[in-house]
């Protein structure tokens, strides 16, 4: 993700996050939560909040180990930069893909902010659980839309039996997501 002033933040699948300034990578940013790195899992996307210039908030997705498996999670944090380097403060998990599954494949994890402040998150179906992409009660193989604090977006479809954060179902492992600059609509 690009920051005001031209610096950027990059993620490395092993769980390292760095700032790129003038073409050079910083030491690892401290405070990144543990990731379940392996296969396609690890530290995934990072996006600066639309109000980053004042809030210093970032949002990032990663594969999170849980007692019953693993899944894609999204956290927010404040990026602090000082003489000692960079760190994440106030890390808060705002979304967890459910149910967790034992797999190191198909995490998805792209984050896209909409102009209304909501965010879309792409979620893989975890490969071996592909039929679950059609099950609207969970978040495997889904596109979800939430608010920055993790609440479901009020304009989600709200169909009978659908998890409240689900925007659309039946996806394999969306890796690309962007806003069409002409229409303002999400493309995946």
Question: Would you summarize the structure shown here?
Answer:
This protein is mainly β. The chain is 2% helix and 38% strand.
Q: Characterize the overall form.
A: globular
Q: How much strand?
A: 35-45%
Distance between the termini: 18 Å
What is the radius of gyration?
A: 16 Å
Average pLDDT, all residues: 96
Structural class by SSE content: mainly beta
Describe this protein with a few key phrases.
188 residues; mainly beta; four-stranded antiparallel beta sheet; globular
Structure description:
A hairpin with a 5-residue loop joins strand 1 and strand 2 (17-21). It is globular and about 50 Å long. The longest helix has 4 residues, at 52-55. It has one helix and 13 strands, in the order E-E-E-E-H-E-E-E-E-E-E-E-E-E. The strands form four sheets. The protein has a four-stranded antiparallel beta sheet. It has a four-stranded antiparallel beta sheet with strand order 8-9-10-11, with no helix packed on it. The chain has one helix at 52-55, and strands at residues 8-11, 17-21, 24-25, 43-48, 57-66, 69-82, 85-96, 111-113, 119-122, 143-146, 166-168, 178-179, 186-187. It is an all-beta fold. The mean pLDDT is 96. Helix content is 2%, strand content 38%.
How are the secondary structure elements laid out?
Layout (H helix, E strand, L loop, with lengths): L7 E4 L5 E5 L2 E2 L17 E6 L3 H4 L1 E10 L2 E14 L2 E12 L14 E3 L5 E4 L20 E4 L19 E3 L9 E2 L6 E2 L1
Antiparallel strand pairs: 1-2, 2-3, 4-5, 5-6, 6-7, 8-9, 9-10, 10-11, 12-13
């Amino acid at each position: 993700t690009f920051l005001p002033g031209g610096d950027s933040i990059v993620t490395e699948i092993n769980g390292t996050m760095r700032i790129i300034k003038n073409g050079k990578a910083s030491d690892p940013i401290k405070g990144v939560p543990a990731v379940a790195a392996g296969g396609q899992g690890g530290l995934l996307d990072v996006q600066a909040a639309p109000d980053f210039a004042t809030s210093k908030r970032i949002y990032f997705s990663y594969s999170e180990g849980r007692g019953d498996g693993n899944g894609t999670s999204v956290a927010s944090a404040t990026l602090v930069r000082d003489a000692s380097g960079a760190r994440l403060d106030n890390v808060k998990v705002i979304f967890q893909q459910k149910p967790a599954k034992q797999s190191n494949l198909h995490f998805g994890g792209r984050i896209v902010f909409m102009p209304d402040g909501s965010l879309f998150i792409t979620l893989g179906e975890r490969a071996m659980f592909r039929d679950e992409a059609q099950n609207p009660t969970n978040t495997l193989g889904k596109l979800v839309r939430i608010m920055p604090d993790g609440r479901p977006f009020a304009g989600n479809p709200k169909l009978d039996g659908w998890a409240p954060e689900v925007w659309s179902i039946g996806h394999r492992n969306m890796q690309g997501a962007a806003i069409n600059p002409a229409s303002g609509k999400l493309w995946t």
